[in-house]
Specification:
Layout (H helix, E strand, L loop, with lengths): L4 E2 L3 E10 L5 H8 L2 E2 L8 H6 L6 E8 L2 H4 L9 E8 L7 H8 L4 E7 L6 H13 L3 E6 L9 H16 L9 E3 L18 H11 L12 E10 L3 E10 L1 E3 L3 E4 L4 E10 L2 E3 L1 E3 L3 E6 L10 E4 L5 E9 L1 E2 L12 E6 L2 E11 L2 H7 L23 E4 L17 E13 L4 E5 L12 E11 L4 H4 L6 E16 L2 E5 L15 E4 L4 E8 L4 E5 L6 H14 L7 H5 L10 E9 L7 E2 L2
Helix pairs in contact: 4-5
């Protein structure tokens, strides 16, 4: 059965409540809710004092199954619909928590303060919604703060503005509804009547659909709260992101490197025998110290990987201002962790890239899906930064590209999971998006010494072009060249490499000549008569430049004397320990 199942008759539907700090999300969740689950409404004392949500609170309420689901919900057609409200923090610094919660959200409820409108965090929440969630409802909260005679006009104006903001996102034309979740503000007595909440519940019912739930595959559960019950064991509450679990299953807690047996399972305080993807559960396992795991993941033993580095597909997030540079550090949110990583961008070699560029660009909102699969068998081209579309207007799609992430500490995550790179150290109050790029994890490196064992197999290369001049001709097959190498260069490394002359001949570097970085070239086919004539005329004009008269040689000959240039082209693999120079 492909739906969340609480008891047998209830369909579980996860609604993420996102919005700017102080937009009234928690009071809205409280107004909507009847059953508060354990994590609900801020366990955090710091948050109680400030009246701001710091952890992913969960709570739920149950309604009759709406008509549109009765036909499709199988045996549940006379059952009920449980909305689980995932109240995500509004603090910009806690964006990582939001990303953690957004992976299982079926519908997003974006709460906007009707007086303040869209703020920085509102925009960031929108982006996370675009990356993780198919549908949205916008709730204009705090309408009680508007004077009654101007209320309707102000609501209409704000609704128009929001539709304008959303028109280029996947949520264009999403419903907007106005409410007052806590008239009079947080301090007001609870007797104050809420406004618009029953209408909001009806709207939510109309927006529900049968979420795709799959009990197959490895279990991955995001744990948001952990506590002991004396004589019974340790209870972990959280949401099943993938797979399913049942009583007597063994699960792994990767952070503690231990396996535990499931003794009992509850959903919203009712005992059940098992649960699956999308369900919100409390799982009691054999005793361990709950302080060791306040948040984290639980999984099928051996199914998660602890990675020191990874290759990911990358797409820049359009609203991020500034370039994405190789060697820069970003906050990487992967699985349920956020960790700093050094980033190296790379793409297809120039020829392959032009062949594979397509005319259609996938919409910004969809998580990366690249048409060229990543494989270690292919060669890739090193980039100093992320490359954006070449067009004058930004309608040109960005070329396909990838990044190597080298984590500052190892991260535990499932394969192919969503990856988001951000600059969370930027000023919260600056009105700028801090989400920089998104993609999918394609290949992980689990060996601590991956730089020696794995990276040499990642064939990312840089091309090098050097240019020098012909100093003089020794005979028809031998030249002396200059200005290609510094005096201190070890010329032995370059012996045997091919060079071409600006006149078309090709040759091979035979070795150094003297101490000043000059070198000898062998021209296998011999010099053309025209080249010899050109070189003899330039050397006459320049006069006798012996090794003592070095500076005279360094002067550029006059324009009419046409010196002959020497070009050396080779590539070097960035992670090759020998730093070999390779010519195709």
């Amino acid at each position: 059965m492909s739906v969340g199942h609480v008891g047998t008759k209830t369909l579980n539907f996860n609604v993420g409540v996102l919005g700017h700090v102080d937009s009234g999300k928690t009071s809205l969740a409280r107004a909507l809710s009847s059953t508060a689950s354990t994590a609900a409404f801020d366990k955090n004392p710091q948050s109680r004092e400030r009246g701001i949500t710091l952890d992913l609170g969960f709570s739920s309420f149950t309604v009759d199954l709406p008509d549109q689901l009765r036909g499709s919900a199988g045996p549940q057609r006379d059952g009920s619909l449980q909305f689980t409200l995932v109240d995500c923090p509004g603090h910009a610094s806690l964006i990582r928590t939001i990303i953690g919660g957004a992976q299982i959200i079926d519908l997003m409820m974006l709460v906007v303060d009707v007086v303040k409108g869209v703020q920085t965090q509102t925009a960031e929440c929108l982006l996370i919604g675009e990356l993780t969630c198919p549908r949205m409802v916008v709730v204009l909260n705090k309408i009680d703060l508007l004077p009654p005679n101007k209320r309707q006009g102000a609501i209409e104006k704000m609704t128009k503005r929001l539709h304008k903001t959303l028109e280029n996102t996947r949520f264009k034309e999403c419903p907007v509804i106005a409410v007052a979740a806590k008239p009079g503000g947080p301090e007001a007595p609870d007797t104050e009547e809420t406004q618009g909440v029953p209408e909001l519940i009806e709207l939510l019912k109309r927006q529900t659909y049968l979420p795709q739930r799959d009990p197959a595959g490895d279990l991955l559960m995001a744990v948001d709260h952990c506590f002991s019950i004396r004589g019974q064991g340790t209870v972990m509450t959280g949401t099943i992101l993938q797979g399913s679990l049942a009583i007597n299953d063994t699960v792994e807690i990767p952070a503690l490197k231990v396996n535990k047996k499931i003794k009992s399972v509850q959903m919203f305080r009712k005992p059940v025998s098992g649960a699956m993807q999308g369900d919100r559960v409390g799982v009691c396992v054999t005793q361990f110290d709950p302080k060791l795991l306040e948040r984290g993941v639980v999984c099928t033993p051996g199914s998660l990987h602890t990675l020191y580095a990874a290759v990911v597909s990358v797409r820049k997030i359009g609203y991020f201002k500034g370039s994405l540079a190789t060697r820069a550090k970003f906050h990487i949110t992967v699985g349920h962790e956020t960790v700093m990583a050094k980033v190296t961008f790379f793409g297809l070699p120039p020829v392959a890239a032009s062949e594979s560029s397509s005319d259609t660009k996938p919409p910004m909102s969809l998580p990366c899906s690249l048409e060229t699969p990543f494989t270690l068998d292919r060669e890739y081209f090193y980039q100093d930064e992320y490359v954006t579309g070449q067009g004058e207007t930004s309608s040109e799609p960005d070329p396909e590209q990838w990044a190597l992430l080298e984590f500052e500490r190892p991260v535990t995550c499932p394969s192919l999971c969503l990856v988001i790179g951000s600059k969370l150290d930027r000023d919260i109050h600056a009105n700028a998006c801090r989400l920089a790029f998104q993609g999918r994890l394609l290949q992980g490196f689990e060996d601590k010494s991956y730089a020696e064992t794995a990276l040499p197999h990642l064939r990312i290369y840089k091309t090098k072009h050097k240019e020098g001049q012909v100093e003089r001709v020794c005979d028809d097959y031998t030249l002396i060249g200059r200005n290609l190498f510094k005096k201190e260069t070890n010329l032995q490394l370059f012996v045997g490499l091919k060079v071409t002359l600006s006149t078309g001949e090709s040759g091979v570097i035979e070795g150094g000549f003297g101490q000043s970085g000059k070198f000898k070239i062998r021209i296998q086919e011999g010099l053309c008569p025209e080249t010899k004539q050109l070189l003899s005329s330039t050397s006459k004009k320049k006069g006798k430049g012996g090794s003592k008269g070095e500076p005279a040689n360094e002067e550029e000959p006059k324009a009419d004397s046409q010196p002959v240039s020497i070009y050396l082209r080779f590539k070097r693999y960035v992670f090759d320990p020998q730093k070999k120079m390779v010519q195709s």
